[in-house]
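Report of the visiting student (M.T.), summer placement. My assignment was to run the structure pipeline on a short list of targets and document each run. The first record concerns Zinc finger (Ubiquitin-hydrolase) domain-containing protein.
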Amino acid sequence: MMPTNSRSTAHHTVTPDHFTSPRAEPSQRSNCFIAFVSRNCQRSAMSAGSTSTSGLDPIAFPPTPTSISDLTSIPSSSSSPLSSSAAPTEAVLFSSGNPRIEETRGVMHLYRDITPSSSTSTSTSSSVILPIGRKPLVCVLAVPNHMTYADFCKFCGSFIQHMLEMRIVRIDGVDEQYSVIIRFDEQSFTDDFYKHFNRKRFSSLEEDICCVRYTVDVQQTESIERAQSSVSSSADCPVCLERLDQDKDSGGILTTICNHSFHCSCISKWTDSSCPVCRYCQQQAESTCSICGQSENLWLCVICGFVGCGRYKEGHAVRHWKETQHCYSLELETQRVWDYVGDNYVHRLIQSKTDGKLVEISGDQQDEISRTCDCDEDLSEALLNSKVEAIVEEYNNLLTSQLENQRKHFESLLLEIKEGNDKEIDEAVEKALHAKLPKLQLKLNKAIEEKTFLEEINKNLLENQEMWEEKIGKAEKREQISTRLKDLKIKQLEEQLSALIAQIESVTTDGPTNSAVSEIKNATVITLPSANNNTGETSGKEEGN
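After the run finished, the structure tokens were exported:
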């Protein structure tokens, strides 16, 4: 086993304001989980009989619970600095971190659930009793391990946008479940979350019920470092490579059980139950005998997968062979296969990674390998190459999955940028159209005015046309009448002229008489009246000699 380097720290009281600062680096969030500074009292180092300088005794740790039901019956110490609230509180031991690397232990004080037992998830909000002096900090207990981080984020629904930070922790003595400490941005959303999810089933197909408790404070009691972490902390999200800020668009920050922080929007796309960075999985069930529950000297049936204890315990593996005639069983501790029919270990062949030759492992060699791990050069090289190949394959799979996630992430970013550019172009076109609209509207108004003016002129012209046509008709009629009168007068004058010419000719021919000559000489020319005056002809009076 690795040497354990244990370091203990004194109790520290934390308020929700110190849960995690948005400006803190992920390494500070991972190692400190919360700020361990108290502004109200001074603390002394943990030791037997040590007392606080402010007159407050150190918190007495309750016994480790064995199930979630036991958590509700652990009272907190009466001398706790924050147990003076009107509602009763209880202390719950928790731990976080990868136990193989670093583990942080602490205690959190929760308000008791004082809601009437008759109230269920369908009860009205008026029947829910909220503790006095509560803070925007809650703890969701008893989340089943098969529920991944993405499932829990989906279960929270729209409340994920109002969560500043979520922290995954383990409750001591409970291996099949984990808990989530959540800090909200406002108290109203905290109360709505409590009313909506407390005593509500995680799924309609399961019996697991969501247990939400208001949290008074969270205290760290011990930090154990067992190995140096190979994963360096960064201020950026390992998935999207953007800075870890408590942004409402990304839904805050989620810190896994192994102290790796992600954006909630990024971890919600991770469908695996393991950590995207270190592949640590909370759900690590220990193999036990299927009959008696023994955890030592276990054998796995290679035919059906039955796990039973060896003949030096209860002998359930041998009994399984007698009942089912499954003669091959794998020893989980040494990974050797036992043949019940031959009553010995089977021969195993290992292919060398260097030259491809098959190397046989005899029973004596297997015993020697299991005891001292001392084998020949070919076998040692084959085992080493096998381990290296497994590590390389795992690394390649991890790298491939991470690159695929990165590709999807950056493709989504490109799509968002493209949509943003299209939106900006549409807005620019719309803005240009709005700028041209007044000018076009002005031209349209002028055209409408001109059209109205021309229509009025056309209407007046049509009216005047009828009047002038009537006047022209009358003028033409008068002209025709005048022409007929003139023609008639000309005809009359022509007749008179003809008669006069005939008379003159007759006088010239016969010779004029004295009286006629005298009459002509003394005659007077009288002008004829105009054509419009239709009166009789006027004859001149002859004057006597």
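Residues 286-346 form a domain with the Herpes Virus-1 fold (CATH 3.30.40.10). Residues 140 and 212 are 5 Å apart (CA to CA). I thank the supervising group for their guidance throughout the placement.
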